[in-house]
Amino acid sequence: MPTWECSPCNFKTERQTHFLQHCQTQKHKTLQFLCETDPHLELGRTDLSQTSTLTDVTEDSISDSDHRHELNFPVITSQTSPVHVNLNELNAPDEHIEDSEDIGHEPSCPTDQTDWFPFNSKTECLLYIFMNSTTHPISDEVVKYVLYMMKELGVPDIPSLQLLKEKKFGDYCWENMITKGVSEKNIPVWIVKPSEVLKLSVANPQISKKLIRQPGNEDIIRHPADAEKWKNEILFQTNTELVPEVTVPVKLFMDDTSAHKSKKWMALHCIQMQLSGLPLSDMQKQGSVQFVGASEKAGINDIASIVNDNMTELQQNGIKAYDASKNQICIIKSCVDTIIADYAMLSYCCNHLGSGANKYCPRCNADSDHYMSLGIKRTPAETQQQLRRLEIRSNEADKKKLRKKKGIKEHPNVIWNMLDPHRDIPVGMLHLVPLGLAKHLVKYIIKIADEATVRKMSCHLQSTYPQSRFYNFFKYIDSRQGKDFKEYMQIAPFNMIYAGIPRCFVKMTACLASIQKQLNKTSFGEDDIAQIRESIRQYHQLIHEHTPELKKKAKTHLLLHMKKNIVEVFKYIVILCPTIQWNKAYKNREWIGDVRKPKTKNLIIVNPIVEVREANGSLYEEEKLQELLRMFFKKYAGHPTLYIIDDCSATKELTKKKDMLSELAFSGRHAEQSVWVISQRYNSVLKDLREQTKWLCMFYTKDRDSFDNCLRENDVIPTLEERQRIKEELKKKKHRKLILKTDQPTDYWLLN
User: Fold this and answer.
1) Mean pLDDT highest for which of 163-177, 264-278, 302-316, 573-587?
2) What is the DSSP string of 408-451?
3) 725 found inside a domain
4) pLDDT tens digits, residue range 502-531?
5) Are the C-beta atoms of residues 647 and 684 closer than 8 Å to each other?
6) Range of the domain at 204
7) Which Pfam families would you find in this protein's record (predicted)?
8) What is the pTM of this model?
């Protein structure tokens, strides 16, 4: 049966009489007038063997192909395609057919690509943008009226409404961009696929041409591409024989705002992503961060599980995409470079108990008694082992005790599949200083101050910044945002002096404001690092003297990790050991691998005993420790370098005065050179070197004199009773060690 259809009115019928009645209605006449430039009244039918006619238009059949051509009737090649009939053209005489086209002029399709390709003209391009705005949806009626006005004004090459609506680019479908998962409570969760975000980003010329795709060769780290993870851990493909591969590492932003007190934020678990290869200037732009997923009901691990599945597939198999910078098809692969999170989310990602644990740092084994020093760093293997021990315990009291002691918490966590959360989640500036240390200090001060003093501070603050965000700043301090504290710290010392706050707290506030200013620099020289180190030491000392309660705040300790992030690790590590090939301390170590072929080019392993051939052809061994140290010093001076000298105590090389080892002890720090000397006998090490030490690690030794001499020479443990107690503790357990911090302020602790 034939189908009669009127496109402007969205009317369709299988009866010709109904269609003719519709054509006489006022609604049809009005829409036909408004769409005079394009009322494609369609006459669709499914049986092409029949001919459909309008009795009031013509009695002749329109099935003839020539007649179709004369009326611009499209030739039908498929039985399911609609037949388009222009009623105005059927009513008009032949000589006026061109003047009665419906929606504008059909643009002349050029044979060559124009400047507006894939559009036929600038008019079509602008109308398409106007019609498909993502922020301001436009109805078809408005577009029709604009087309009518353009025709009346004589604008050339006006496309039809149907042409604009049928314009498509590729096979883009929003349903392909999302994927669905289910939480532990069977709650459906949808996320935007990170693979699709990468696909669109690489296909965007403005992003693709700026993207850094290979590790850098710079010694100074100015971008993630210059760091060790890009150089040694992420596999960047260079195969160009088949389809080229593009590796694009990403960083994830994870946050859990379900417990947030501020009414300005919705309680959501959310994940966002950003390309790690973007230039630093572009990373600061809001448009560079892409939304991945969020949920009120499902947990953050449920969302992360779906992200992990997509990232695993992307890392193993990749996804086919278009590379706009090279104008070619490519395969995109990716991995998670780092995760940006606050302290609570950092603890969650590390399976850490949080600030309630004895060892409250998620990155190392430090506790509140040793907040001024970095503890032994946590590793994934160690944490997983402790979680297994926790799992096999049946008594809940024992579990609770172990959680608090080790600082661990068992819960499902897919972050271990992505990266090492202890190492690859940096300490963020926003949550460390403004929302952390500054908030803790200000709350402590207003807690001990009387009501009149707090009111005086508030009045002074409002008079300094009238009509600002500081209205009732201290009253609603728990709901203040990071930017509020960041701005307040710039005037906090003056505000507190005016209100009569004790000078010690004003000094602490000024010191913290100075740390915030120093940490916000974009580049750091040796003087800057030394200044940061001294400011942090001064702030910790003030806490020790005036606010010991703040020792229990984990972020007080995390200041040291922020400093460590800046001066992170040594650029080069040089191991000088004559027994390296069979020494169990190095053999099969994960960070070394095969001692003959270390995993990284920045690790140098040398045997200081070399064979020398005499003139008569005989061989003898000669120690070249001092010569090797001098050679490496000349090569690596100015780059952070660590020398590990092991198993050399049996020789006289460690006791030579006025040689390269003693020079390193006195002046090596000025060239960023550090030395570790591992010896079984304390007195076998040159005294000049012993006097310059900052740290000392001791195991139990049967030589009583050596142990006592070491503690006497390094006056860290004050009493003889305490020294004897520590010595007995070292006896009880194998591999237990005593750490002495000989640099001011001195400290010590026992580690298992």
Assistant:
1) 302-316
2) B------GGGT--HHHHSPPPHHHHIIIIIIHHHHHHHHHHS-H
3) yes
4) 999 999 999 999 998 888 876 666 677 778
5) no
6) 174-340
7) Pox_A32
8) 0.62
